[in-house]
Design brief:
The structure is a homohexamer. With about 130 residues, chain A is mainly alpha-helical. The first copy, chain A, has 6 helices and no strands.
């Protein structure tokens, strides 16, 4: 159940078709997942969102592609975004995430979740030593 | 301003001293940051928390130490934990995070923050292809 | 699947019936959605919650009814409240939200989600110019 | 630094004075904390908010007053609400929260923060046994 | 739908069997809920997580068992953790939570959710009186 | 206190100068707030972020400029982003937000915060009537 109808035959719109073609070319796969299919209800939003994700996740940068997927998962878990968790966990596996790495990811994000609670509770002053200017 | 008083002379308690000694030995530094100083108000909580963090962050595992710090930062940002963000950003820098890596981290976590909102809005059904059992 | 049983024949309780009658009169519709049906398990909580929502959402005020629904959606997305997102998106459509407005809403809340992450990361000092007293 | 100016001489407004008088009578104290002082910028919002908090926190109910404060703290920590954490931690201490109870509270909310992350990650199907109707 | 496959015959692994035996003994029940069944994909993570939860929730401490479950629910609601909400609501009922207590819990956590929003909006300075050192 | 040093003389970099010039032209003001000043530590991130915010907030669209600021505030409150709350509240005032509108905004976002908690607790099934396809 979704808040918008799945657009019928979205590639009849040339702007949508251009984005979908770019998704297929970037991923070297014919599969278009539901996120992009539903977002086709507004071609401009589809274009902007795909460009934003592609420029960060599909372009070589300081962090390697798997690390970027792990970070994406970490944020999506914390925001309780069900779809995002599923799609980026699948993407991480496709980029080499083993069960051992996944368990380690869970270990770190759950430890962070634990100490975040303690520190948001105690409201401890930040050490001057952590100041970027010192 | 904090919800508990900074304990005075916490190392007079041998359980606290043992934890602080282990922190110093693990980090090869005399610096004890405020988190542990304040947590000394309850030696059992201090012990459990330090053991939990140490076993995940200071022991070699599938993920390298810098990646673990980046994940810790990602969760702390999303939970809006000011102290955690500061302490783990400092830790990440100490483990080799350059400004270029930091900018890349910000790019990924902000892109995740962006699409998390869209997907928590549209409530799109998860693709069967993402199912771990398929 | 819910944490409480759907009350059977809730309008047998006159306090529940009075709230449901008011919901029907306020909305000019016979439809009572699941939120209120389930909440009938505790008539006092039902009364307080309906009064709170009605006094804010169904009474004319500085903001127009559609804007109030859009704000409600924005908060519900960010809190990852699935039911709330669905019910208030439906309400917004009933009050005139077009697909074009919906896409614009998604653009704003996702941009906010993006920069919120950057600013919760960098922990920038607030400009004095933003101070209400200056 | 706040988004609204601290109202000057707020009790010149009789609606504000009535609320402040009720706060003082309910708490048996002359102290009015900043929340109510700032909220006086809009007397209607002040009235509604105080009535809502008072009816839940200052009226005897199934849960005892200290437990209610602990629950308030737990939510405020998780929402990273700095002011709320401080004011309700102070209120809990006034109602009998010892350091031992506080440490126990931190233990529970941090354990919840930890497993919430794991479960929001793995997206495990809810056991039928937890269904309220079974 | 989950991000990991439900392990088949997990108790063939002696580390998993030891944890499951301890869960059954601690709870005096043969029922192992899905959380632990899925977590068996990584025996070390299963062990650590169970030890952490058990030491906080199943060992007598300053707070009584029901209050600890209520706090767990409060955090899980605020983090929008569907599974956690269901499992700990069921646990709270098993430990004596009546519908009356549940309604009171909902009253407190929703009031906190309400004022958290106002205070995160207005960014009011914390009263000095709330300072732990004063 | 911030996680990055405020860049000195950032406009010596022509990419930074171009963004700052565009900010000044778009806003018809010489004031550059701290967000952009700090973000200048990475000119590419500065460019992308400014383009993203500008294209949504400074370009005419279905929603009027004030409504967009109110939505931005609503998300920022819920994410507990202190800087974002301050900067967008100031922006909303500059675009015509009166105290009366602000109080109404607080009423709506706090009511949403309240019912979000109840619904994330009870986990009520979404009414079929809310389905976009029906």
């Amino acid at each position: 159940m979704s808040t918008i109808k799945l657009p019928e035959n979205p590639e009849a719109n040339p702007r949508v078709k251009a984005v979908f073609d770019d998704i297929r070319a970037t991923r070297k796969s014919d599969f278009i997942n539901n996120f992009w299919l539903y977002l086709a209800f507004d071609p401009a939003l589809l274009e902007e969102t795909w460009q934003g994700v592609k420029s960060v996740m599909a372009v070589p940068s300081a962090l390697d592609p798997l690390t970027k997927e792990l970070l994406y998962i970490a944020v999506s878990i914390t925001n309780s975004c069900r779809y995002c968790v599923h799609s980026h966990t699948a993407a991480a596996r496709a980029k080499g995430m083993t069960d051992e790495i996944y368990a380690d990811l869970l270990r770190v994000v759950s430890t962070a979740g634990r100490t975040n609670q303690i520190l948001n509770a105690i409201q401890i002053p930040v050490d001057e030593k952590f100041e970027a200017d010192t």
